[in-house]
Design goal:
- The chain has twelve helices and 18 strands.
- Strands 1, 2, 3, 4, 5, 15, 16, 17 and 18 form a nine-stranded mixed sheet that branches. A six-stranded parallel sheet has the order 10-9-11-12-13-14.
- The protein is globular, with a radius of gyration of 21 Å.
- The two termini are 12 Å apart.
């Protein structure tokens, strides 16, 4: 048995309570004890680490991960990348994410059916370093929906699987389930850059969503949905979707529906891509950029209103912002904490809880993740600074003095390999 005693730490346990000076005993993969610094903890023969007053918190969870999105400018670039190269790029993104302090990730879609599955299993086996991962399917969409990049004169692929009608949706879901995914992703609404299906439009029918949910739940797995439009949110709730992303244009009825299922449904705004693209387009006076910028700003305003209200209603919201595009590259995921504070009215503590306590719950491991508590997995971050005073500290890799996942310690780097195990 390996054991590590972290002493002289300022412990924030993830519950929202104030931090306190204390000690944490790690034995193998789990936390064996959490006690105040003044309490004597008998731990003879264990390795000791003096935290020197640094901030000790739970490892974070990326609730809307796209590890196979390799910082592309356009979705079709994902379809053009050969699967062998794509697997390597996905493993690289996993190491970046762990190096950013994220010890778990719930995928919101893979660019190819087996990419998440292969990377999930490679990490779980210990052959590669990265966050524990729940694997997702590509985004099952309808003709003309988000993820359909085909043209009559030109076949192209992106991150979508195009299916029309309940039978076709059911078949695509079953193929992905057969190949081992944990989550089926359905694109119920459109998006701001899809001219044939804009962000406030609902493009899947009730029968199509029901078919996808029934096939997935029959296999004992979960469904997530891209749902920006109010009608899409209501449809997702009514059909039994488990994770509902975005929810930007939710009206009062949609918010009531989300509140009614808050004990079983998770949400996540994935606002990082919206903010990143707004910043990248500012100063571009082309007609296309001005149209897109207007749509993005409208989405940000709507999402800010919606998630302020969701916070007040106690609807569980996870961080995760569609990272993996050129406007918001992999490894910068901790920016979401700042977005939650600046745009959604979250306090730093509430934003950190979205990344830890609530994020841990979305990983389907019961009472094992997201808190610094006896019996929980030893997923910990030792931070040189106080994220409760300024959540931007977690964007500064130099402040991550130690990353611990399942009791294994890592140092981070700004370049490959991004993380490296610390030998005890």
């Amino acid at each position: 048995m390996s054991a590590l005693l972290i002493e002289n730490a300022r412990i924030w346990d993830g519950t929202g309570d104030a931090p306190f000076p204390g000690k944490v005993l790690v034995e193998d993969q789990h936390i064996a004890a959490v006690v105040p610094e003044s309490e004597n903890l008998f731990a003879d023969g264990v390795e000791r680490l003096d935290a020197d007053g640094k901030f000790l918190m739970p490892g974070m969870t990326e609730g809307h991960a796209h590890l196979s999105f390799n910082d592309v400018a356009r979705g079709t670039a994902l379809g053009e990348l050969p699967p062998e190269d794509h697997a390597v790029a996905t493993l690289d993104a996993a190491r970046k994410l762990l190096g950013a302090g994220f010890t778990s990730a719930c995928s919101a879609a893979s660019a190819k059916i087996r990419l998440d599955v292969v990377v999930r299993d490679a990490i779980a086996s210990g052959r590669f370093d990265g966050p524990r991962l729940l694997a997702a399917s590509p985004e099952i969409t309808v003709t003309g929906g988000l993820g359909d990049v085909d043209h009559l004169h030109l076949h192209q692929e992106s991150f979508g699987l195009v299916a029309d009608g309940p039978d076709d949706i059911r078949r695509q879901a079953r193929i992905c389930l057969r190949e081992g995914v944990d989550t089926i992703k359905l694109n119920i609404s459109g998006d701001h850059a899809v001219e044939s299906a804009l962000q406030d439009q609902t493009v899947m029918t009730r029968a199509e969503v029901t078919a996808g949910v029934e096939a997935t739940h029959a296999a004992g797995r979960r469904v997530s949905a891209h749902a920006r439009a109010a009608a899409a949110v209501k449809l997702a709730v009514a059909c039994g979707v488990d994770i509902i992303y975005h929810c930007d244009y939710a009206d009062e009825e949609a918010l009531d529906a989300l509140e009614s299922v808050k004990d079983r449904v998770f949400t996540g705004p994935a606002i990082g891509i919206v903010i990143g693209r707004i910043k990248s387009l500012e100063g571009d006076d082309s007609a296309h950029a001005l149209v897109l910028l207007s749509r993005l700003r409208r989405t940000l305003e709507a999402s800010s209103r919606t998630h302020n209200e969701m916070r007040k209603r106690g609807i569980p919201v996870t961080i995760g912002g569609d990272y993996g595009f050129d406007a918001n590259p992999q490894g910068t995921n901790a920016k979401d904490l700042q977005h939650f504070v600046e745009h959604f009215g979250f306090s730093p503590s509430e934003a950190l809880q979205a990344a830890t306590r609530i994020g841990g719950q979305i990983m389907m491991m019961g009472d094992e993740l997201g808190l610094v508590r006896k019996g929980y997995r030893a997923d910990l971050l030792l931070v040189d600074g106080d994220p409760l005073a300024d959540v931007r500290h977690l964007q500064d890799g130099k402040r991550l003095a130690m990353i611990i996942k399942d009791g294994v310690r890592y140092r981070r780097f700004d370049a490959p390999p991004y993380v490296q195990r610390v030998q005890s």
